[in-house]
Amino acid sequence: MTTQPEAVALYQRGRFADARDMTIRLLDARPTDSALHNIAGACARALGDLAAAETHWRAATSLQPSLSDGHNNLGVLLHETGRLADAEASFRAALSVMPSNAGAHYNLARVMTDLGRVAEAEGHYRQALDLQPQYVDAWTGLGLLLIDLNRFADAEAALRRVTELAAQQPNAHYNLGNALLRQGRNDDARVPLLRALALDPNHIGALTNLANAARQQGNFAD
């Protein structure tokens, strides 16, 4: 007899269709199993079937309102499909049953940013980081938000942390370089921008910003 852990293992190995088929068979026997609906939703999303994913995640959270991950997963899908108010409600539901869900704080921060509610966005990014201090995406989101708010020194601090945690990611260095450029520190910006290019020689943003910095200084030498 197949089991839920087997379906999870298939999903984790990237065998999404097999995991979906196994989960659906299990749901035939256990249609009110919220955890199975949660897994089925993840499989459907991975396979690009967003309607099925939404159906399964709504079933999961209806059957088990305390399933924080189910609310969070549903919220991500709703955000991706442009339903910001519904996404906000799902992330708040996730946090109402598990305030320590760092991912839900991060995802809610992204929705708040899209809604222009930047103070709330910053608060949720910081709550995510209080819960999970090495959360690269949250540091990145916070840093980019602070750039948009013209708080460049604070943005620099956040984005330097990203380069420490994700040293092999070109965008980590590119974003730091951008924060330095916005402060008029062109020479300082060259270091992370050149690092971004070393990791990705075709990084258009880094190439463009290096050229702009050189142009502003009247220096076109490498």
Shape designation: elongated
| Helical content class | over 70%
Number of helices: 13
Record field, number of beta strands: 0
Q: Over the alpha carbons, how many angstroms does the gyration radius reach? A: 21 Å
The rounded distance between the terminal residues' Cα atoms is 64 Å
Instruction: Please give the largest β-sheet.
Output: none
Uncertain stretches: none
The amount of beta strand, in percent, is: under 5%
Write the element-wise H/E pattern from the N-terminal end onward.
Answer: HHHHHHHHHHHHH
Question: Mean pLDDT, rounded to whole units?
Answer: 94
Helix and strand content put the structural class at mainly alpha
Would you give an account of this structure?
- With 222 residues, the protein is an all-alpha fold.
- Helices cover 77% and strands 0% of the residues.
- The chain has helices at residues 4-12, 16-29, 34-46, 50-63, 68-80, 84-97, 102-114, 118-131, 136-148, 152-165, 170-182, 186-199, 204-217.
- It contains 13 helices and no strands.
- It is elongated.
- The mean pLDDT is 94.
